[in-house]
């Protein structure tokens, strides 16, 4: 039985569920001849109550990272996690993350590690619904043509509430009260969270160096109840859609509210969930739909990445 030392950055909802799922899957790791030892969990306040497994080593000192075989980043943000992960990556050790903003905005620095198979990030897009794995493996045999996706649960919730007759401001306030939207909510409702995720996807099917600043972004802040009701009267539904396709020989990525027919896959398969429609010349049209947020949903993909690393599968490699 070999021991694998794991460090976790952040212990919010996702971090706690990652720790609990590692604990619950102890037998699966044991079947692979591995015992997971959590060397440390970086937090801002060790006295804050958390639902973690017994004996979880919470600390405000990141020194434990030096002894970790793999680091799981669940803290969010861009600059701070990058500063913590940089020495770990430079030493040749792998990182597991769900941080789409980090991946989108720090790609110049992260790309070589991804190409080396040291970066695992299935949970960064659609959380526990596997889309990056298929796009980085079997779908490469098919010529990519186009994708459309609904990738932000906050916007999905708000527009769904507006379909029930609520004004945008009321629906947004409810989303914030339920913890679905941050304060301020710009990252979600402005379309930037969706743009981060679309950038990550574009690197698997269009261009391995696809830059975040090439995504055209329009959020839902200008959406009115009248817009939503008019779409419903036409037999359509409004969604914040991420879209990638080739226009005049160049890949175009955009995020914008779109009015789609009620029978569109993003309106039925993704009625209350994240969803993606992937079109390839050889594979045809594929629909992925499922949970795109939530602690345990995200943790399932992150612990799945940990299992992949233990088995010896490389991380998610973008197009060269």
Automatic annotation (TrEMBL):
NADP(+) binds at residues 10-15. Gene3D superfamilies: Dihydrodipicolinate Reductase, domain 2 (3.30.360.10), NAD(P)-binding Rossmann-like Domain (3.40.50.720). Keywords: Amino-acid biosynthesis, Methionine biosynthesis, NADP, Oxidoreductase, Threonine biosynthesis. Its EC number is 1.1.1.3. SUPFAM superfamilies: Glyceraldehyde-3-phosphate dehydrogenase-like, C-terminal domain, NAD(P)-binding Rossmann-fold domains. Signal peptide: none annotated. This is Homoserine dehydrogenase. InterPro entries: Asp/hSer_DH_NAD-bd, HDH_cat, HDH_short, NAD(P)-bd_dom_sf. The keyword Magnesium does not apply. GO terms for molecular function: homoserine dehydrogenase activity; NADP binding. Belongs to the homoserine dehydrogenase family. The keyword NADP applies. NADPH binds at residue 100. One of its GO terms (biological process) is methionine biosynthetic process. The active site is at 197 (proton donor). Pathway: Amino-acid biosynthesis; L-methionine biosynthesis via de novo pathway; L-homoserine from L-aspartate: step 3/3; Amino-acid biosynthesis; L-threonine biosynthesis; L-threonine from L-aspartate: step 3/5. It holds the Pfam family Homoserine_dh. L-homoserine binds at residue 182. Residues 10-114 form the Aspartate/homoserine dehydrogenase NAD-binding domain. Residues 130-307 form the Homoserine dehydrogenase catalytic domain.
